[in-house]
Amino acid sequence: MTLDETDALRRDADDPGRRHMFLVPPASGGRYEEAAYLVGNSLGLQPRAVRDELAAHLDDWATLGVEGHWEAHDPWLSLPQRLAVPSARLVGARPEETVVMNSLTVNLHLLMISFYRPSGTRTRIVIEDAAFPSDSYAVRSQAALHGLDPETTVVRLRPRAGEDALRTEDVVGYLRDSGDTVALLLLGGVNYLTGELVDIAAVTEAGHAAGAIVGWDLAHAAGNVELRLHDWGVDFAAWCNYKYLNSGPGAPGSAFVHARHLGDPAVRRLDGWWGNDESTRFEMAPVNRPPATADAWQVSTPQTLALAPMTSALQLFDEAGMPRLRARSVRLTSYLMDALDAVTPGRPLDVITPREPGRRGAQVSVRVGGQSAGELAKRLRFEHGVLVDSREPDVVRLAPVPLYSSYHDCWRAAAALAALC
Ligand SMILES: *Cc1c(COP(=O)(O)O)cnc(C)c1O
C-alpha cells in the first residue's frame, strides 16, 4: 500500500462511524482544523449529549436539593444500578454481577481483599511484566498486607526473547507447571503498552484448572473488544469508564463479580453503608446486610456528578452494538497497520502490536528509535495536529477508536510519522 489521502477519505465516506456525536478537539498544529485524536485509550472524547445530561443534574440539584436523590430526572440514589445494566451488556455480564463505583485501582484492591486468599504454598500473584504500574503497585501491596514478600510473591510473566507480546500458550504453560503455587492471576485483557488482546477465555480456564482465582483488568478491553465475562467464568474484573467508554475525566470505574461468588458468606469484603441492601440501608442498623449482588462491594455514596455522563456515553455503545464496533475497529487498525507498513521501512519505527486482528484491540503501538517517544509525540501534536500517547523511553501508542476515529486520522498519523522519523 502507498499512502493515499484520497483513499483514506473515500474509506471514511464508506465507513463513517459516529464521529458526529462527539466533540473533536481542534488541532494544535498542522494544516487540518481538527486534531487526529488517537488517544481515546487514555481519555475518550466528549459525547455531544453529555453537556445537557450534566446540566440536567445541576438543575435538579438547584431545584430539588436533597430530594434529588429520589426525584431527579434520573434519581441519584439508583443511578449506579441503572448504569450497571449497560455496563454489564458491554462485558457480557449480568446486571447483578456488575457495579459502578470508585475508580479502577481502588476497585482492584476491594476485589483482591475478597479474592486474593493466599494459603500454605499457594501464595503467588501472577501478572504480566508489562502490567500498568498501578496494577503492579496494587498487587505488591496486597502481598505485603498478608505479610508476604512482594519480590517473591508477585510473578511477572515476560514475553519470549525478541518478542513483545506475551503468548497465551506461555501463560497456560506457566499455570500448568507452577499453577499450584498461584493464588491469583491478574492480567490485563488488552495490554496497555503493546495493545495485545489476551485470550481471556483460555487463560481463565487454565487458571481455574490450576486452582487459582482469575481476575482481569479490563481498562483497555471494555468498550474495545467483545467480552463474555459470565460465560468465560471470570472470577472478577474491573475497568475504567474514561478511556474507550468516553464518560469523562475522573469517571467512576466498573467492577464485575461472577454470580457464583455472589451471596457467598465465605467471601470477605470491606464494608460500608452503601454495600448494605438498599431496602434496609436507611434503617441505620449497626450490622451490615449485604445483597447477593455485586452492589455488596459498594462502600460509599456514589459520585453522582461524575457518574452523570455515563448515561449518554454508554447509550452510544448500545446503539452501535459491540459486534459492529469491533468489526469497524479491526478495519481501522488493519488500515493503520498497512499505512504504517508503507512508512516504517528504512525508518527507526517498529510496530510491536500483534499482527493478527484477533490478538489486538483498537491500538497499534510503535517502538521508535533516534528520538524520545515523548519528544516525538510533542512534535506530532504541534507540527501535525496528531495526538498520540507516549510511554518512555521508546513507545508511542495510536488508538483509532471505532466510535469516532477516522481512516483519515490514521492516514495523518502515518504521514506525520514519515515526516518526523
Ligand atoms: C488506565 C489504567 C489504570 C488507571 O487506574 P485508575 O485507578 O483509574 O487511575 C489502571 N490499570 C490499567 C491497566 C489502566 O490502563
From TrEMBL:
Protein name as catalogued: Kynureninase
Binding-site residues for pyridoxal 5'-phosphate, renumbered to this chain: 104-105, 132-135, 217, 220, 242, 273, 301
Pathway where it operates: Amino-acid degradation; L-kynurenine degradation; L-alanine and anthranilate from L-kynurenine: step 1/1; Cofactor biosynthesis; NAD(+) biosynthesis; quinolinate from L-kynurenine: step 2/3
Molecular function GO terms recorded: kynureninase activity; pyridoxal phosphate binding
Organism lineage string: Bacteria, Bacillati, Actinomycetota, Actinomycetes, Micromonosporales
Any one GO cellular component localisation term in the record: cytoplasm
Catalytic activity reported: 3-hydroxy-L-kynurenine + H2O = 3-hydroxyanthranilate + L-alanine + H(+); L-kynurenine + H2O = anthranilate + L-alanine + H(+)
Subunit structure: Homodimer.
Cofactor(s), by name: pyridoxal 5'-phosphate
Stored NCBIfam families: kynureninase
InterPro entries associated with the record: Kynureninase, PyrdxlP-dep_Trfase, PyrdxlP-dep_Trfase_major, PyrdxlP-dep_Trfase_small
Pfam families: KYNU_C (PF22580)
Residues modified as N6-(pyridoxal phosphate)lysine: 243
One Gene Ontology term from the biological process aspect of the record: NAD+ biosynthetic process
HAMAP family in UniProt: Kynureninase
UniProt cross-references to Gene3D superfamilies, sorted A to Z: Aspartate Aminotransferase, domain 1, Type I PLP-dependent aspartate aminotransferase-like (Major domain)
Catalytic activity, EC: 3.7.1.3
Keywords for the protein's UniProt record, in alphabetical order: Hydrolase, Pyridine nucleotide biosynthesis, Pyridoxal phosphate
Annotated source species: Catenuloplanes atrovinosus
Enzyme class, first EC level, given as a word: hydrolase
